[in-house]
Structure formats: C-alpha cells, structure tokens
Amino acid sequence: MTAAALLLATACPLFASGPAQDHPIKLSDGTALVARDPYGGALGRNRLFFDFSLRGATDRVAKAQWALDGNVVRTDDRAPFEWKGQSGSDKRMPAGEHTITVTAFGADGGQASTQFKLTATDCQPAGADVFLPRHPGTARLGVQAAVEQPPSRPPFEALSFTARKNVAVRGRARGTLDVVTGSGTRHYRFDGGLRRGDLRLTLHPGRKRFLAVSGLPKGTRSATVRLSHGAVRIVDPAHEWRIDATLSGGGNTATVRTGGVYA
C-alpha cells in the first residue's frame, strides 16, 4: 500500500509531515524559482491554515497561478505569490490525493509550470516536544503519536533521538520516563539506563543516535524522557541546535525534526 493510501485508510497510521519540498520552475528568460510545499506531500487537515508559496527571483514574476486537480483556485500578483486557506475546509482542501499545478508568469510575458502530489488527510502527524536548557541541566525529550486527537490515534512501540546540530551527549543516563497509554500514565525512574520487562532505555554518549527506548507498553500514545545532570546539552547556546525524534509502530516510522535557538 502506498503512503498516500495509508493516510486515507480508516485507521490512521504513524506518519510525519515534511520536510519541506521545493519544486523548480524556470522561466524562458532563465529566472529560477521554486514552488514550496512545506508539508512534504502530506498535509494534516487539523492545521488551521495551509500556505504554499513561490520562492526565488520573484521580482521577475508578474503573477502566479495555483490549480488543484486542474482547477485554478488562486491567482496572486504579489510576492510571495501564495496560495493559502483553511486546511479543514472541503471547499479549499478536500481530503484525498491531489495534484497541485503551479504556473509562474514572467514580466516578459513568458510562463512555466511545475506539478507535485499532495495527500490531504484527517489523520494527524506525529509530534515532538524537545527542550534543551541554555546551561547544562535537565533536558526534556518528548514525542506524541499524533499532535491532536485524530479519528484514530496510532500507538507506537519504540522511539529514538538523534543529534543533528550543536548537541553533545555526555555522562550517565539519570532521570525519568513518563509513558501515556489509553489507560493512564506510567512513571519510571532510572539511573544508568532502564530495564523493566520488555521496556529498555539506553543512552549512548558520543553517538549521533544518542537515546533509544524500545518495548513501550501496548497502546502508548506519548512518551517523555527527562535526562538530568547535563547529559544532553547545547554545545554553543548562541547558535541553533537540532534533534530528530523518530517513532516506530504498526510497521511505520515517523521522524520529526525539531530544534531551536536562544535569542
């Protein structure tokens, strides 16, 4: 079954929106543009609004035209040449598989188009709630199978976190794990790792994939790990940090990219 078909099934699968995709458009005068899909082909209709835009040398663009399944839905003559609307509206973004066609009209009268596929679904993407303190302290690493209550909430059995930028992992695994299932919250404390039945929590100092949790209780909807004593820290608080959170369950995997910077 394709990813699009899964998102349209009755039981919602585990999935993540994004990363953003840029679809190139080149006008006859050589102007290079991209139509940006910030949702990576999978738009969860729980969002209040959706927003697609044209990027690049837009000063050479007279207007942009957006079509949904061959029907023009938006013509914009001002940068950033957007198409936006209410995600949950059946008139603006019906649930289902769609083809988006974007046509850019150059100032010289030329035009060029690109197309991309989009699945609009009432299922909801997985989410991550990650916080790293400015100075070494307690880090919070949380994930949710779905950011809000969808028609059905997919459980997951395992999770991991990967350091992508400006993150260091040192020392011993000390802290807590809170797991929310359909029947309530389970709380675990650990020092040096966690082994409880099938449940395993392991910290890997110095590795990119630095934290792994497996054997989560049946029906897990969200899980939050708190690591104390600066085990996970920002290398340089003046720069952006990034962490990927990966959830696995029901034969599917979803990776949510998260990060931040202190102003």
Overall description:
This protein is mainly β and 263 residues long. It folds into two domains: 17-121, Immunoglobulin-like (Sandwich), CATH 2.60.40.10; 127-260, Immunoglobulin-like (Sandwich), CATH 2.60.40. The chain has one helix spanning 3-7; strands at 21-26, 32-37, 42-44, 49-56, 61-68, 71-76, 83-86, 96-106, 111-121, 127-131, 139-144, 158-165, 167-169, 174-181, 184-191, 194-196, 199-203, 209-214, 222-227, 232-234, 241-249, 252-260. Strand 14 (174-181) and strand 15 form a beta hairpin. The model has no long low-confidence stretch (mean pLDDT 91).
In short:
This protein is mainly β and 263 residues long. The protein has one helix spanning 3-7, and strands at 21-26, 32-37, 42-44, 49-56, 61-68, 71-76, 83-86, 96-106, 111-121, 127-131, 139-144, 158-165, 167-169, 174-181, 184-191, 194-196, 199-203, 209-214, 222-227, 232-234, 241-249, 252-260.
Give helix % range: under 10%
> The CATH topology of the largest domain, please?
Immunoglobulin-like
Query: pLDDT under 50 segments (min length 5)?
Result: none
- β-strand percent reads over 45%
Summing up helix and strand content along with how strands pair, one would put the structural category as: mainly beta
Q: What strand order characterises the main sheet?
A: 16-17-18-12-21-22
How many separate domains make up the residues? 2
**What is the correct CATH architecture of the largest domain?**
Sandwich
Mean pLDDT: 91
Tally of individual helices: 1
Shape: elongated
Rg estimate, integer Å: 22 Å
Instruction: Please count the beta strands (DSSP E, at least 2 residues each).
Output: 22
CATH class of the largest domain: Mainly Beta
